[in-house]
């Protein structure tokens, strides 16, 4: 992928210590995301963003919930390798206040503000943030996103113990928030290309039956709503279960919602 020269645009300096980028620079990166083909190219663009906002570290992560028991975590990052190794080997995500935060919240937050909240005062959480600072991740912010399929997504950026760190982080948050949504779209596009054609399709009747099953209706009740026999409803629900590789009807409903096959009746 050919990188444009747009990243060489002059930065707008509003005071002697804090560097601000503008929307033209942001959208130059976003345009490049349309041509990303692999992880290395995506990470390169994130590095370009880091340079523009003068915040050295980033992590873009996706927590896929194909299984709630064993979710899969995908990361794109330039965090120090020793920190990442320690973090995942010791399952630090289980006590990470950032991870806890993104499970329930949508607003971007600086880490120094996060650890002041009462719900994140547990000793293990405080110790984790103190340990991160030893690897150069002294402060930062996280932008949480929820994908259409229910996956948890975040873009975090981190900075060392430098002057005006909060001002630098604040200046970058609005741009990072926009970038994060486009990173997610880029990630999903790459995922589809890498996995090939695995899309599940349901017929209208199958969708109708599964929709009403998601509303708690029995097969008999569904048959009365869509004016078919109960046996026909059971046939369609069984087909849905097979197509979605689900273990039962309830599992099929959950998978269909996650895959975007069932939508609100607006």
From TrEMBL:
GO terms for biological process: regulation of DNA-templated transcription. Residues 195-260 form the HTH luxR-type domain. SUPFAM superfamilies: C-terminal effector domain of the bipartite response regulators, Pheromone-binding domain of LuxR-like quorum-sensing transcription factors. GO terms for molecular function: DNA binding. Pfam families: Autoind_bind, GerE. Keywords: DNA-binding, Transcription, Transcription regulation. CDD domains: LuxR_C_like (cd06170). It comes from the Bacteria. Transmembrane segments: none annotated. SMART domains: HTH_LUXR. This is DNA-binding transcriptional regulator, CsgD family. It comes from Enterovibrio norvegicus DSM 15893.
């Amino acid at each position: 992928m050919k990188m444009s020269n747009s990243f060489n645009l002059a930065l707008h300096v509003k005071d002697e210590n804090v560097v601000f980028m503008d929307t033209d620079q942001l959208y130059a990166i976003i345009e490049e995301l349309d041509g990303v083909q692999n992880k290395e190219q995506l990470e390169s663009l994130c590095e370009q963003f880091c340079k523009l906002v003068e915040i050295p570290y980033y992590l873009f992560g996706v927590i896929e919930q194909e299984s709630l028991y064993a979710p899969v975590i995908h990361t794109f990052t330039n965090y120090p390798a020793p920190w990442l190794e320690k973090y995942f080997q010791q399952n630090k995500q289980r006590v990470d206040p950032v991870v806890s935060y993104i499970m329930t919240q949508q607003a971007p937050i600086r880490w120094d503000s996060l650890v002041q909240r009462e719900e994140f005062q547990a000793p293990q959480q405080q110790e984790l943030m103190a340990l991160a600072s030893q690897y150069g991740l002294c402060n930062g912010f996280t932008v949480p996103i929820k994908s259409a399929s229910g996956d948890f997504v975040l873009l975090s950026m981190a900075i060392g113990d430098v002057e005006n760190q909060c001002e630098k982080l604040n200046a970058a948050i609005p741009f990072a928030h926009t970038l994060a949504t486009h990173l997610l779209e880029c990630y999903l596009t790459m995922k589809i290309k890498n996995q090939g054609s695995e899309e599940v399709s349901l017929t209208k009747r199958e969708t109708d039956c599964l929709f009403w099953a998601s509303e708690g209706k029995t097969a008999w009740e569904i048959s009365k709503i869509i004016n078919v026999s109960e046996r026909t409803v059971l046939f369609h629900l069984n087909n849905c279960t097979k197509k979605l590789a689900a273990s039962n009807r309830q599992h099929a409903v959950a998978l269909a919602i996650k895959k975007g096959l069932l939508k609100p009746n607006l």
